[in-house]
Specification:
alpha+beta, 2,3-Dihydroxybiphenyl 1,2-Dioxygenase, domain 1, 2 domains, four-stranded mixed beta sheet
Length: 135
Amino acid sequence: MYQQMIFVNLAVNDVDASRKFFTELGYSINPQFSSADNTCVVISDTIIVMLLNKQRYSDFTKKEIADSAKTSEVLLCLSAESREKVDELVNKAVAAGGTANDDVQDQGFMYGRSFEDLDNHSWEVVWMDPAAVQS
């Protein structure tokens, strides 16, 4: 069966720093689609994040690039297999230079935290009890 993929493209200030940040979170880099202007971060078999310097990013849009320190252009949410894995990923992000958002979402059946990467892109990490979503 065909697995649809998502390629998230984000403008970054420093490709090398962003590459290091996401590597420290435990993600791999696909060198085939990486260069001095961009890096290809493999989140999973179906989720790829392309981090592009602003010049390269502007090759794909005529729109002004959002200042992610002031404007929310997207909320990215990753699933986690447990509450502990939520905390682990957010803690890795902070250790790698990211910023944790203080608000923890704990609704019992769902647990989430969020962080901002080096360029202030918002990343949410959420665990949901599989029993709560069974129909």
